[in-house]
Design a protein that fits this description.
alpha/beta
């Protein structure tokens, strides 16, 4: 999956030398250097080995669920109508505020286990269901705890600018709650990146810019939910700030694609939300190709708009709904997903990278995107250990 390897960069009859949790060498087994001849040998009997997968966009720490809203949408209500009626993100806020830290951890661990079982080694986890200082910090502490209780890397994103709490206007919330909470979370070492929801039902570009300005002063990278339901300039804002990623981007334009290319920002495609809310406008995948914008794929696992717990199904959806190729989908859950998180030590099988690998009961990489509801994982190697 190296960027210049072409499609998958598949090496047949290959060998991978692993030492101290890192990849020391990779190539045809017939060319294995004699320096590695004394290492313990493990055969995977012709199975496919890929980098372990990366889910670069999730909201897996939360209280409650929104199955009732699922019913509402099936009865004709739009995602925006549900939100304006008091549902949507705000409805999860109450459940998350009411849940204890232990309860949030207990409910999130099975979600982590489900992703690990599909070959995932890195999971991004967002806050954003607190909308007050106490709960946002609680969510981020739970996210950190997930990485201590399971063999997986957790990358946290502070998503205080996710929704406007009831009874407060957006500007007041940004100034009196969101920014001070970001400062507190950063001081506690709980934040790896700063995110926001730039949309008509959430925050405009001016308000998000204030959050991003604070992130800059704290030395934190930014990313953004942009152009999911409409086009209000979020993608251009993300590019302006050199964001790690712009996520959703269904309503992005070719001009937005050019801006992302210039800033080196990854376009993260989230077909689970597109599917769940019956969206009809797909992201401009061809424009991203034309401008060489790296594309990542994530589950967006959340209780409302994307209750999707399968990274493999997200890959299939990216192909069937967005017309990505299987090679693009695998790049989107390996090297480009790593880039969307600012990680440089994973996502490809190459010397110096972490030995995070997934071994599959398949013979062709396209099978990973082809199957629907199928998990062909044989085993996962995390930091050199099964």
């Amino acid at each position: 999956m190296a960027p210049l390897a072409g499609d998958y960069g598949l090496v047949r009859e290959a060998a991978i030398a692993v030492s101290d949790g890192q990849i020391a060498w990779v190539g045809p087994a017939s060319k294995l250097p004699p320096d590695y001849a004394d290492l313990d040998l493990r055969s995977f009997d012709g199975r496919l080995v890929t980098p372990a997968l990366i889910d670069c966009h999730t909201h897996i720490v939360h209280g409650g669920n929104r199955a009732r809203e699922f019913e509402m949408r099936l009865n004709g209500a739009s995602y925006e109508e549900v939100a304006r009626a008091g549902g949507g993100i705000v409805s999860t806020v109450g459940a998350t505020r009411d849940a204890s830290e232990a309860d949030l951890l207990a409910s999130a661990l099975p979600r982590v286990d489900a992703l690990i079982a599909q070959g995932v080694s890195v999971i991004e986890v967002k806050s954003g269901y607190g909308l007050d200082t106490e709960t946002e910090l609680k969510m981020l502490r739970v996210a950190r705890a997930l990485g201590k209780q399971r063999p997986v890397r957790i990358v946290t994103s502070f998503l205080g600018a996710h929704a406007v709490p009831k009874g407060m206007d957006a500007d007041t919330y940004i100034d009196t709650v969101c920014v001070p909470t970001l400062e507190a979370a950063h001081a506690a070492g709980l934040v790896d990146a700063v995110d926001g929801f730039c949309e008509g039902i959430a925050f405009d570009t001016r308000q998000i810019a204030r959050v991003f300005d604070k992130a800059r002063t704290l030395g934190l990278p930014v990313k953004l939910h942009a152009e999911q339901l409409s086009h209000i300039g979020g993608t251009a804002l993300a590019a302006k700030y050199g964001a790690l990623s712009a996520d959703h981007v269904e309503y992005a334009t070719p001009a937005d694609a050019a801006a992302l290319a210039a800033s080196g920002t990854v376009a993260v495609l989230l077909p689970g939300a597109f599917y769940t809310i019956h969206e009809t406008q797909a992201p401009p995948v061809q424009a991203f190709r034309d401008h060489a914008v790296p594309m990542a794929v994530g589950t967006d696992w959340n209780p409302g708009s994307s209750p999707l717990g399968s990274i493999l199904l997200a890959m299939n959806m990216a192909c069937t709904l967005f017309r990505m190729t299987p090679a693009e989908a695998l790049a989107g859950t390996t090297r480009n997903a790593a880039r969307a998180l600012g990680l440089t030590d994973c996502g490809v099988i190459a010397p110096g990278m972490r030995a995070d690998l997934a071994i599959w009961n398949v013979s062709d990489p396209a099978e990973l995107s082809y199957g629907i509801g199928i998990n062909p994982l044989h085993t996962r190697i995390f930091g050199g250990a099964e």
